[in-house]
Structure formats: C-alpha cells, structure tokens
Design brief:
alpha/beta, Rossmann fold, 285 residues, elongated, 11 helices, 12% strand
Length: 285
C-alpha cells in the first residue's frame, strides 16, 4: 500500500522541536565566530556620552571607576570594554580604581583585553590603583589626598615611582570620573564625595534595568552623561566604528529575536491551517 506523501503543513505539525534548538545554537555559535555589525539608532544619551569623552582635553586625567561584581558581568563588562577602548583611543591619562572588592579583576582584564600595555605606557598614560576601601569615607579622603588612602598601585608599585602620579594628588587634578556601575557602593558615593563638594564631572554606565532610577543623577545635573545597558554599549561601539563584545551580543539577540518571531508566525500559520484541514489535535514533537 502506497504511503501518502506528507505536505509542508503536515511536516511542520510533526517537527522535532530539537531542530529549532539546534538552529538557535547554530545562530549563537556562528555570530560568535563571525560577528555581524547591526546598525542601530544611537540614543541621545549615548551621543552625549560619546561627545563628552571625545571633547576631553589632551592629557586630562580620567578616573575609570569599575563598581560592579561578577553577577553583573554579562551586561557591565561589555560596557567596560567599550568605555576603556574609547579612553585608550584618546590622548588622556587613565586612573583606574574600584570601590567593589571584585572590581579590580575586571579592571585588569579589560586593560589586557584592549591591549593597553602595547598602546600606552603604564605608569605614564594609565595606572591601576585597584581597590579603594572605606566607601564614603574612603572616597572623601581620596578626593582630598590620594596618597592618604592609597600608597601603592594594584601591582605593588609605589605611587611616587609612577610618573603619571607625580602631578596627580587630589580632586583638583581630575578632569572627569567615568564609572561602570551596578552595585553599591558606586555612583552615589562618587556623586556625594566628589561631584557635589568639588564639582567634579561624572559620566557613568548602568544596566538597562536601572535606567529609570539612575536617570535622576543625570536629570539633576550631577552627571554630565550616562550610558545605558548593553544597547548603549553597542551604540558607543557603533559610533567608534569598533565592534566589540556588546555589538556581537546585540547582533546575536537580534538574530535570535528574528528567528523566534519567524517560529511564532509559522506556528500560527500551521495552527490555522490545521483547523482549516479539520485537524483537531496536533502538536509539535
């Protein structure tokens, strides 16, 4: 007896869902090794941040504050890489520091990931101070006299032996604070101890979920610029014409979103097609 050949609709009704998972996995792997740049509209917030850094004067001292922990790495670390890349591309001096006990790891990783040592001279163009303890009290003392709370850099070198630090002693020598933030202590500490009393400029990154809450600092004039989430990081990379991790992750999310939308459309087409054919019970296998 000849078996009736299955049509497209019939095949879809009996499609093994593992095939869909396999396609999604292939999309992720493909875009990881062959990254695609997805042009995205740049928000006003990102444009302001980008121009703020681009307009920094030559040899300006920038505090790069990394205040997030490992649980925020998927969203914060791409932001740190993008912000570090822009700073390294400018003729500014970077003073990296963290208020989070885990933050020093991400500073060191980001500097190595962006080849800081081959592009700049350590001790002259950038310095990693590591962890600053004390939260509010620590930043307050740091603002008045850096050496009162930090004697050596992250690698154990005395600050007096680093050429960059010879003329960097307090808030007076800092042009702007650039912060990658998610945890406490963070932006509130810098705002209270350096922005309010000394009018030090502050620009910072925060995760997308915190945007509506953290905009209060920007709207109140305590921050001159803000970068929001993975999308903001990808927008910054797009402006720099330097696709990094955020661009790759956004491309992957976009491709998976399109694939998911396609699956939803096909599922509905299949469902109504099955009803039209009089099929009462069907399911994907």
């Amino acid at each position: 007896m000849m078996t009736k050949k299955k049509g497209v609709a019939e095949r879809l009704r009996h499609l093994d869902t593992r095939i869909l998972y396999a396609i999604a996995l292939l999309i992720i792997v493909w875009l990881y090794y062959v990254p695609a740049v997805v042009p995205i509209p740049v928000s006003d917030y990102t444009m302001v941040y980008y121009k703020t850094i681009e307009d920094l004067p030559s040899k300006a001292v920038v505090i790069l504050a990394v205040d997030f922990s490992s649980r925020q790495t998927p969203e914060c670390y791409p932001g740190l890489l993008a912000m570090t890349e822009q700073l390294l591309s400018k003729d500014v001096r970077i003073l990296a520091i963290t208020l989070n006990p885990q933050g020093y790891i991400f500073i060191d990783n980001a500097l190595h990931a962006r080849d800081a040592w081959s592009r700049k001279q350590y001790g002259t163009d950038f310095v990693n101070l590591g962890w600053l303890p004390g939260d509010m009290a620590g930043v307050s003392s740091f603002a008045k006299d850096i050496r009162s709370v930090i004697k050596k850099d992250y690698y154990g070198t005395s600050l007096d032996d680093l050429p960059m630090m010879k003329n960097v002693d307090s808030y007076r020598d800092i042009s702007i604070i650039v912060e990658v933030y998610s945890d406490e202590p963070g932006v509130e500490v810098w705002a209270r101890q350096m922005v309010v009393p000394y009018q030090t400029r502050l620009a910072y990154f925060d995760i997308q979920a915190h945007l509506t809450d953290q905009l209060k600092y920007y709207k109140a004039g305590l921050a001159v610029a803000i970068l929001s989430g993975l999308r903001g990081s990808a927008e910054l990379e797009f402006l720099m014409k330097k696709p990094l991790v955020a661009s790759r992750n956004m491309a992957t999310q976009t491709a998976l979103g399109v694939f998911l939308l396609f699956c939803m459309v096909m599922a509905n087409v299949n469902y109504f097609g099955a009803r039209g054919e009089g099929v009462d019970k069907w399911k994907l296998r």
